[in-house]
């Protein structure tokens, strides 16, 4: 019974992540196409933020799918280096529109 529940959960997560991934990849693709047109610097910045947010969501979707694989013992963890300052900069950039919308100031030290 418990094994059936795990298999059902994995199947559900697999289906839902694929259903979400398809329109997200489309949005990212159209954003890339739009970025190749004549844009102002601000428009280019906004599209970069949209693309970055979309890519972040794709990673999150993949992580959800991988979580289901962990339950079934079908995942291998890989230790890989990354640039922490680049990651933090990306995260801060994702929150900038909300910070501006709320008339807040982000202080970096």
Report on the architecture of this protein.
It is a single chain. The chain is an all-alpha fold and 109 residues long. It has 3 helices and no strands. It is extended and about 55 Å long.
Write the layout of secondary structure elements.
Blueprint: H1 2-35, H2 41-71, H3 84-101
Amino- and carboxy-terminal Cα gap: 53 Å
* Overall average residue pLDDT: 84
Which percent range describes the beta-strand content?
A: under 5%
Helix-strand string: HHH
Q: How many strands in all?
A: 0
What can be said about the biggest beta sheet?
Answer: none
* Gross morphology: extended
Range of helix content? over 70%
Summarize it.
The chain is an all-alpha fold. It has helices at 2-35, 41-71, 84-101.
Structural features:
109 residues, 3 helices, extended
């Amino acid at each position: 019974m418990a094994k059936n529940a795990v298999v059902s959960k994995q199947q559900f997560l697999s289906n839902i992540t694929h259903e979400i991934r398809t329109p997200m990849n489309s949005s990212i693709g159209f954003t890339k196409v739009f970025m190749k047109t004549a844009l102002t610097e601000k428009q280019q910045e906004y599209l970069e933020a949209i693309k970055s947010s979309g890519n972040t969501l794709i990673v999150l979707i993949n992580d959800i799918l991988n979580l289901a694989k962990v339950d079934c013992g079908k995942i291998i963890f890989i230790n890989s280096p990354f640039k922490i300052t680049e990651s933090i900069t990306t995260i801060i950039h994702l929150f900038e529109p909300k910070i501006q919308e709320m008339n807040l100031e982000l202080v970096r030290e």
